[in-house]
Amino acid sequence: KVLHGMPEWRSGEYASDMLYYISWQNFTRSGIPFDFLTMKDYLLSKRDYKAVIFLNAFTLDQAQRTALKQR
To answer: What are the Cα distances from residue 10, in Å, to 6, 7, 15, 21, 30?
Structure first.
């Protein structure tokens, strides 16, 4: 769910929440259109993105890496 461009991303973990919040602030100030998606939603999306930034992909398992390479 998105409210005024800001997704409901609260995870309950302070570091992750701040990472998303600060990134959201900076992206909105940039004037560039953007989407915030989970990796699962990105992999299921049919939309072709010019650039993708994973904010919290600190560790990926082999299945995730393979899915991203195929995308």
So the answer is: 11, 9, 11, 9, 22
**Contact (Cβ atoms closer than 8 angstroms) between residue 32 and residue 67:** no
Q: Using only the alpha carbons of the chain, give its radius of gyration.
A: 13
Looking up tokens 């072709």, which residue turns up? Answer: 48
- Residue pLDDT tens, the chain, 71 long: 444 455 555 556 677 777 777 888 888 898 888 888 888 889 999 999 888 888 777 788 999 999 999 98
Q: What is the dihedral of CA 11, 3, 27, 20, to 10 degrees?
A: 0
Answer for the pair 54, 22: CB distance below 8 angstroms, yes or no: no
CA pair distance 13, 17, nearest whole angstrom: 6
